[in-house]
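User: Run a structure prediction on this.
Assistant: Running it now.
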Amino acid sequence: MPKMKTRKCIAKRVKRTASGKYMISKPGRRHLMSSKTSKRKRNMRKDAMLPSAHNQRLQKALPYGV
């Protein structure tokens, strides 16, 4: 059976923690930052955990991990 391909679009956006959860960077940081409050910009700096409902789909898309 041939090797499974990794979905590169997801592999570049997601990293996996040691416990098996997936982390993403929060959206909304590219442009139009002047209209956002300091608190909102500060909270966007931290990485966010993806909900566990996505785990099964991500494991299929990333067969060899990230």
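The CA atoms of residues 19 and 49 lie 12 Å apart.
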